[in-house]
Structures are given as C-alpha cells and as structure tokens.
Request: fold
Amino acid sequence: MRRIILLLFAFLALSTDLVEYSYFQKDDTQAKIKATFVYGFTKYFEWPGGNGDFVITILGENPGLVVELNKIAATKKVGAQKIVIVNHQTLKEVEKSNIIFITPDKSHFLNDAVSKFKGKGTLIVTEKQGLAKVGSTINFVIEENKQKFELNKSAASKAGLTIGSSLEKLAVNVYN
Amino acid sequence: MRAVKHISLLFLLLFAAGQSFAQVNKLEKALELYQEKKLDSARIYIDEASLNPTTRNEYNVWMVRGFIYKDLYKTKEAEKPISSYRDVAVESFKKSLALDSTSINPQREGILKGLKYIASTYHNDINKTLDTIRFQTSLNNAAKFSALSKFLDPSFKESFYNYEVYLTIGSMFEKEYEHKKSKNNLDYAKAYLFKAHDIDSSSSLVNKNLGLLYYNQAVESINSIDPDTPLDQLDVIQQRAVDLAKQAKSYCLKAHKINPKDKVVIEALMGIYYLLNDMVMYNNYKLMLEELNKPH
Reply:
C-alpha cells in the first residue's frame, strides 16, 4: 500500500505541473514611480515660454526611466505642448530642455548644468544624497523604502522657475 | 467481474447460515445477474437484500453489493469525477469488513483490493476538475482518497497528502490570478497556500509561491499608477507596495535559505530589494545569480 501511495503522489505532481510557481513580474518599479513624479512636477511649476515641444532630457543611463517617460509622452501633454523625451550622456549634447534629469553617475555635471541653464526656466532633477543643497531644484531621496524628494526654492528661483505652493508641502526637505 | 469466481462459495455459506430462502434467493439472483453482467438488475436485488432485516447484517451481502456497485462505476461512470456508484461501493465494502469482525471472510483480500482500486480513482480524478470553478470536487475527491487511504493503512500521512493538495490548488489559483487579476482568485490562492504553509512551513515550494504572490501584488500596485496620479497619492501607493514587498521578502528569504540555488527565488529577491530601494541587497543577490549562471 505504501508503494501504491507513493506512486499516486508522483502522479499528482507530474500531471498537474502546477505546484512549482515561477512567474514573477520583472517591471522596473522604481522607473515607473520616478517617471510619474517627473510628469507630476510639470503641474507644479509655471513654465516660461510654452512654445514648441516640452522637452525632458535624461542625462545619463536609466533605460527604464526613458521607457516609462516615453509611455507617458505618448498619451499626455503639458498644456498644449507635446512631450519629447531625449537621452544624452554628456552635458554638451543637452540643448533646450524644460526638465533635465541627471542620473547619479552624471552628478558631476550638476554645477555646469546649473550654470548653462540659469534663468532659462529649466528644472534640474537629481537623485543623489546632498544635491538639493548644492544647486539641484529637486533631488530624489529614499526614505522608509520609498521614493521622496527634496526641494530647493532658491535653485528654482535662479533657474527662472516659479513653484506652485502645494509642491512645498509634498517635499521631505525644503531648502531656501 | 473476476470477483465472482471467488465468491461462488458464498451460496454454501448462506445456506449454512440458515437464512430465509426468499432473501438468500435475492442474493443468489443478484449474483447470477452480476455474472451475466446485468448490473442494473443485480443492483435492485442486492439493494433489497441489504435492506432486509434477515440479511442486512451479513458481510456477504455488503461485499457483493460493493462489487456490483464498483462494476457499475467502472462501466457507467468511470469518466465522471463524481460518482454515487463509487461512493456506495466504498460504503458497502467498508460495512462488509466491519461485519466480518473476526476476519473469516475468505474474500477479504478481494475487498481490500477493490478499495485500493477505488482509492486510486479518487486520487486520479483530482486533476479532472482542477480549475477555478470545479476545484471543490477535486478537494472532495482528495478527501475521499485520504480517508480511504487512512482506513486501509493507519500509517498513511494525511497531513502530507493534504499539503500537496492545498499547494496544488493554491498554485492553480495563483496562476489564474496572474492571468485575470481577479481578487477572488487572489483570495483563494492565499487561502490554500496558507493552508499548505500551516501544514509545512519549512517547505521551499510553499514559501516561494507565497513570496512570489506577494511580490507580484506589490509590482501590480505600482503598475496601477496612472500618470495623473496626484503626487500625494504616490506615497500611499508606494507604502502599499512596500508593505507587500516586505511580506514577500520574508517568504522568499525562507525559500532561499531552504534552497539557495533556486534562481527564481534569487531573481525575486532582487526584484523585492529593488522595489524596497535597497540597492546593497539588490546587488548582493545579483552577484549571487551571476555566480550561479557561470558555466562550470
């Protein structure tokens, strides 16, 4: 009987092919969150100009973010402006942009980027500890395992941007 | 039908036992019809004999009833996952064994063989109804197999068997949930995986399945974000995902401890730590996976 039962167990496992589950989602979860934040920021600033495309530049390597932003660009606009996503590896390549997202490995471009786009209404977004204090207008930080952001009001002012009042309430740190 | 060859002695026994002629005649008639493969008619006679006060406590009557109903099942309902013939056969065989308290029935082995055969059919029928609509039938057949196996062999480990059944059903609902994203499927997946986990919490498989279930929910939560989601709501959604990822982490870590070479679990842990923004741990598991993928 024991042998029969063992054979029966084998039958169950072999015939169902169900017991071992191996599917899991491989989506870039952080890219989705960052992209939603970046698009969300467009609603909290007064953007000078308003002609042509609304350009979001990713300076550095973040393929997941490029993909997610392109998904948003395919269906959304900023006011009447079409959203265009561009990706560069050096600051020299970056031209007119409404938002520049600088990846951590390209943080050394921050100072030059601030100078290059001073007063031009360009929002500079970074994601490295401490950068909100040294020129970035918005800096992503991790708190309690979540993406949050810091805001530097004077950097926004120098960039020629006017911040909507409600954004300040959402930031984890605000620098003047 | 072969059983008939072995039970011709039955007539002699019945007469010796001094049964009333009319009732013996019913059993004799049932046997005759059984030999002629007229199972429906044989059933009528044997049912009458099993109800009659003069024969209802005879193990022979219940044994013959068991064989008739077993063959009715085999000829009419073998493809059906629910069969009353089969259930009656079990009930009759068990009653026959109970009435034969001193084990004098020379056909006792035949009865046990019949019960073992029926037990295997209950088990094999589990797969026939293994879907989100008819899974209760699978559970019923599994319960019948389990009870019958315990009856035949008291050392049979019901909990071990139930673990396999719950894990199978939980995983089936888990797969369905991934296809249809129905909350109902998710609830059933959790319920049955937890039943399996309650029986054996040290199983790599059940910990892995629970870990993947929670992780997929966490990712699903983030994928549900619409671009126009207000920024203050992003924190709420992230918190929900983080809570689910932490639950996933505990199960996947346990699965990994039990089976450190399971690449799916390692990949899941990478995804979990990535979602939790813990890049140190993400990189640890990434390196581990690269190491496992190296050609040896």
Observations:
- Chain B touches chain A through 58 residues (CB under 8 Å).
- The two ends of chain B are 59 Å apart (CA to CA).
- The CA atoms of residues 34 and 42 of chain B lie 6 Å apart.
- DSSP finds 14 helices and no strands in chain B.
